[in-house]
Amino acid sequence: MNAEFIRALDVIQEEKSIDKEELIQSIEAAISTAYKKNYGNAHNVEITIDRVNGDIQVFALKEIVEVPENDQNQISLDKAREIDINYNIGDIFRKEVRPRDFGRIAAQNAKQLIIQRIKEAERNVIYNDYLERQDEVLTGIIKRVEKGMVYVEVGKLEAVMLPSEQTPGEVYEVNQRIKVYLLMVKKTTKGPQVNVSRTHPGLVKRLFESEVPEIFDGIVDIISISREAGSRTKVAVKANDPSIDPVGACVGQKGVRVQNIINELKGEKIDVIKWSENVEEYLSNALSPAKVVQVIPNQDEKTAVAIVDDYQLSLAIGKEGQNVRLAAKLTGWKIDIKSKIDYVNKYQTEKKSADNPDDILAELKEELEQEERQSADDFELPEELDGLDDFEEIELADSEPEAEPELES
């Protein structure tokens, strides 16, 4: 019977992935608890189970003292040395006992505790399994949708997707196969609880790792991701090999690789940009698809002004400021978008306001004098006046004034 017991433990270990040694230790503790419950907590016992044949032994443990005060937990040195002369004061005396009335009640208690320990061990195995898979992408099937919660079956557990982790605009239907990001695993009295997400930027990162071999192999690194789930995502990538185009590797031939990710995210737009050590270039790339004329960074405050053509202004800002907001999250810089005209006007205004008013008047006077001199230089004399001195009198042919006609009386 004991040999069958050991074989049963082998089956449990194989089917439920519970370590056999851990299970035997739990059973030993369960039998010890059942013994104390029936014979009193005052008894100090040790239970051992043979790992090969399954034999169970019960040992009474007593402290060796000079004069015992409690016969249940203490024994005199003289009596102990009758068994083994090597015992000394303070040692633990071990003697095998065979309780006559261990029987049905003790066995029932032991059974219940064993079942409980098995369940706990199984829960620990599941918890540790999912804890190792945290921050990974799991493929699951939606089992039910209740009160805004989406319950997804992922392996042995039913994971929960809270409303805050659901992508706006996505429709979740029962039996729908879906990929989710394992957000968190925690222990509860009912077993491990797993929370998953469809909005976390890590979902995009893991999808790129599965679709782009260069990222999986470490040839291309994802430096940063900024995401507004369901709408748009920006991904900054860097190549560790100068011969590799990181953006091209992520996009794939004819955009196949990135398109697979877009399809999984239900049409969410993805901008793949090249990371650069040059701040101006990096910020300019981050504002893609807008074309930036110039970037003026402030390293101390980590702020920058991006100047774009007038017709590119709305594209650079994006709908409701989305493009510049995602670029700021991606780079960690505060970005101010200005059109060329607005920036020039603002620059001139700031420049004049910073100057002394007298200097401004002198500057304006000089500009007017330059304009007058330029006008004088550009004026051309008629040919008949060309070459005459400035003060030379010119005789006109009919210099005498005509007489006024007399009025008839």
Automatic annotation (TrEMBL):
Residues 367-409 are annotated as: Disordered. It is found in: Cytoplasm. Residues 367-376 have a biased composition (Basic and acidic residues). Keywords: Cytoplasm, RNA-binding, Transcription, Transcription antitermination, Transcription regulation, Transcription termination. Residues 377-409 have a biased composition (Acidic residues). Its main location: cytoplasm. InterPro entries: KH_dom, KH_dom-like_a/b, KH_NusA_2nd, KH_sf_prok-type, NA-bd_OB-fold, NusA_N_sf, S1_domain, TF_NusA. SMART domains: KH, S1. Monomer. Binds directly to the core enzyme of the DNA-dependent RNA polymerase and to nascent RNA. Participates in both transcription termination and antitermination. This is Transcription termination/antitermination protein NusA. The gene is nusA.
